[in-house]
Design brief:
It contains 9 helices and 8 strands. It is an alpha/beta fold. The strands form 2 sheets. The protein has a 4-stranded parallel sheet with strand order 2-1-3-4, with helices on both faces. The protein has a 4-stranded parallel sheet with strand order 6-5-7-8, with helices on both faces. Helix 5 runs antiparallel to helix 6 and helix 7 crosses helix 8. The longest helix is centred in the last third of the chain and has 18 residues. The chain is elongated and about 70 Å long. It starts with a strand and ends in a 13-residue tail after the last helix.
Length: 281
Amino acid sequence: MNRLHLHLVSDSTGETLEMVAKAALAQFENAEVTRHFWPMVRSRQHLERIVPELASHPGLVLFTLVNAETRRLLEDHCRRLSLPMVPALDAVTDALEAQLGQEAHGKPGRQHLMDDAYFRRVEAIHYTIAHDDGVGWENWGEADIILAGVSRSSKTPTSIYLANRGYKTANIPLVVESPPPPLLFELRKPMIVGLTTAPERLVQIRRNRLLSLNEGTQTSYVDSERVRNEVQYARRLFADNGWPVIDVTRRSIEETAAAVIRLHNERGSGDGSRKSGTRPI
C-alpha cells in the first residue's frame, strides 16, 4: 500500500484546494493518504508556524497562494526540505490570462466574495431545504427545478447539491396511493425532471436504509414486486407529461446534478424544452 502525507496550503478557506485534491485522489486505489489542511495562510508568521509540520511529515505540498511573498517563502521552504510542490491553479490561471489578455487580480479568497451569486446561492439553499419531500408545494412556481421520483431515488441529496450551485430545487416523492398535487401538472416555469433507477438497486438501498434505522426489512417498502410497480408508475407519469428522465442507477449525486444542470441550460437556450421526451439520460 502506498502512503503519502498531503499538505494543502491555502490563503483562503481551502475549499477549492480540497475539491482539487479529492478529485485527483479518486483516481488512485489502495493509497493511504494523510491530509494536512492549512487554510488562511496569509502572513509570513503563519507560514513559519506550519513549516515544522512540513518537516516532520514530509510529503507532497499542494498550494493556492496568490500573494507573491508568501508563495516565495513556501517555495523556498519546500526546496530546502526537498519536498515536491504543486501550485494547483497556476496552469488554469496562466491560460486564462493569455486568452483574456489581462492579469489575474491576485486577491486571496476572491472566489468567495459575497456578491450577487453568493446571495442567490444562499436563497436557493433556504428554498430547497424548505421544499424537500413534497413540503410547500404551493410555492413550487418559484422553483427553478423540481425533481420527482420514488422513495430513495436520490432526490434530496441531488436537490441540496443543485441548491449549492444556485438552483432553487424542490422535490416530490411519487407514491402510487397518493397522486401528486394537481399544481405539479400546471407548472410552466420550473423544469420538472424525473429520477428513475433499477428496481433491484432500489430494493438494496431501501434495505440498507431500514437496517441503518434498526427497523425490520419484512415490509412492503422493500418487496420486489411492489418496488417494480412503483418504478413503473413513476415512469408512466414521466412519459405522460413529457418530463425528461435521468437514470440514477450508476450515477453519483454529482453526475446526476450535472445532467440536470445540462438539461436546465438546454431548456434556457431553447434547445431542451420537452424534446428529450422520457428517454432516460
